[in-house]
Design goal:
Largest sheet of chain A: 6 strands, parallel
Low-confidence stretches of chain A: none
Oligomer: heterotrimer
Mean pLDDT of chain B: 92
Number of domains of chain A: 1
Strand order of the largest sheet of chain A: 3-2-1-4-5-6
CATH class of chain A: Alpha Beta
Distance between the termini of chain A: 8 Å
Chains: A alpha/beta (about 270), B mainly alpha (about 240), C mainly alpha (about 220)
Order of helices and strands of chain B: HHHHHHH
Strand content of chain A: 5-15%
Radius of gyration of chain A: 22 Å
Order of helices and strands of chain A: HHHEHEHEHHEHEHEHH
Shape of chain B: extended
Number of strands of chain A: 6
Number of helices of chain B: 7
Helix content of chain B: over 70%
Mean pLDDT of chain A: 92
Largest interface: B-C, 112 and 125 residues
Helix content of chain A: 40-55%
CATH topology of chain A: Rossmann fold
Strand content of chain B: under 5%
Amino acid sequence: MKQFLDKLFKIDRRWLFLLLTVVIILPIAFPTNMKMKSISSSTQTAYDFVEAMPERSFVLLSLDFDPGTRPELYPQALAICRHLLKKNMRVAMMTFNAGAPGIITEFKDQIAAAFPDKKYGTDFVVLPYRAVFLATVTQLATDIYAQYPEDADGTALRGMPIMEGVRNYKDMGLAVEISGTTLFPSWIYYVGDKYHLPVLGGTTAITQLSYSPYVQTGQLKGLLGGMRGAAEYEALINEPGIATKSLNVLNFPHMLAFIIALLSNIALIVMKFI
Amino acid sequence: MSESMLILGAWVTGLLTLGIFSFLYKDNPIFKATENLYVGVGMGYYVSLYFFQVWMPLVYEPLKQGHYIVIIPSVMGLLLLSQLIPKLSWLSRYTLTFTIGYSCGLAIPMTINTDFITQIWGTVQPFSLISKVGPMAIFNTFFILIAVICVLTYFFFSVESKGAVKKVSNIGIYILMAYFGAAFGNTVMARFSLLYGRFNTLYKYGGEHYLYSTPVLVLLFVIYFIVKHYMDKRTLSVQSAQQN
Amino acid sequence: MKFIKTYIPLTIVVVIGTLTLATYFIPHRVSLLYLDGMNSWLSIIYSYAILVGFISLFLSHGKKIVRQSQGWGYSLFMFLGFFLVFVPACLSSGKQSVGGIMTSYGWTYQYLFQPLSSTMFSVLAFYIISTIYRSFRVKSAQAFVLFLCALILILGNVPMGQLLWEDIIGWTGLHIANLTDWLMSVVSVSAKRGIMIGLAVGGVVTCLKMIFTIERSYLGRDS
């Protein structure tokens, strides 16, 4: 028995890789339909904040993620943007991440297709990529047009219906930051705390716990964490989408991880007593 | 973009994705080539982005309009290139000290405000609401205060860790272990989410519309590894026969 | 020579650092003008910074090819990858789509950069499962706490895990949703807050040391 367990511990890890591959591919091919039983408090806080905002509030939606973190953060951005447009807010999409401009183009097209009644330039706009975060957010505190004279396509921003009455942070209602990098706390440092513009955000599951103290102090008006956060938000706005579908697939590798962790420790205990 | 370019894109995506995943089986020339391709593609993308989205609007256009002040930061930026020549690398100090001085000057008040004062406020402020909340909230309020003090005691290295300090510090370690465990649990979800993203794409590109790119490519990779395995085995047996 | 190589740069860091720090406490128009100007200059400096990495990469791989060192053939792929993206970018003037139609640059972003970048990050998932199997062993009380919290989060993050918990332990009244929320918004907050405060103190001290030139390691040798 001891020899068998010993052999089991030293199994070639490539068998584990193959097992993981099968466990992920099968639910993609044969999807299930399970729903999250609960909503975490930080996601609920984010949803409640957006619900309470007045109509036609101007919202900055900063999509600062690259293809590496896209699977987690794109569904979050989509869910939040859908909620904002459903509530008839004005959304300005922007980015400070060099890998994001291509993703934003795709995002804008998807939003435009999902909301045919919403017009570009009236309900949403895409601002061009900016390399230096600090320079841009500091200038937005005084004059947005100094940093963004045009949108991403080169059309003059001033004069667009979406920009009516908007000049700086005082005229804005919210900043939403979707990022897995250190840009996320920078929004809190240099925008939320300094200029008192409410900030809420979405981040990867890995970094979610790092920012939870900001939710507790109210520096963040809400926080979505990873795929789960996106699925919870989709449930709150009653529009199950990519995240809900993804979480159904993730059931199986999670259960595999749980079983493997449990079994390897049970085997360790058994080996001690043999 | 034409349909054929999209199908070609699907095949290229499949090849590159499986090329990188092939490392999980064994290090091989296809993985090494894909890895180096990634470095080049990444650099190409970032250079293009900075050139068209940053340098052109911030340097080229102003210069064309006669705003010659941009020459000063341009020269400072070019000084950074002196790092490539060891004898002249000291020139880059001018730019580095400029950026470091500015970043430090900005960071100090922000860090004190956001990560120090406000966090202490967040720990203590809930006590002012203690008469208005339920028993669980009261427990949480006390828990956060005690736990923060315990964690800070663990990181306080100016006092020797013995006696009461050691006991408090040990509690801090348990709190940290709980945090790291939770972080690990979240990391598992994050990594699996990324993997799901890739497999979902491969599954999508395995359909008829994309000419079954994924199954064909998987089959080709399997054949490659089988052939390579037998060729390596044959080479080894020839070598050992020669040695004998 | 030391004056030009060391003292002038140190003077720059003192002057710029102190001025920038002062602008936080002086809410005057001059402060805003100073910050605006500095931010614009930084943007331009950063646009040149990538050249250092770019030239360094080209030189190292170029040398490998010229000397035909081991694995030089793979360096050709590096150059291939670079030109596969840069040339279409120049032809498309840096635009990924024009009038809703994907350009060649957009194609390279979508079908070269995205898959390569995403796949590199996703490979870690396989190593996570291998780590869980081989290294996630409970050998002490502290490791047990870590293990328990990780398992709770692994179960609580997915619907199936929540269902399993509710079926086995839910009857006790201890629901996984509440437990997960408590772990994330109370226990983790406490731990992270302690780390945050410690880092804040350390960070501020380091910044002050840099501004007052006590810390000079960033200058390199002979500083």
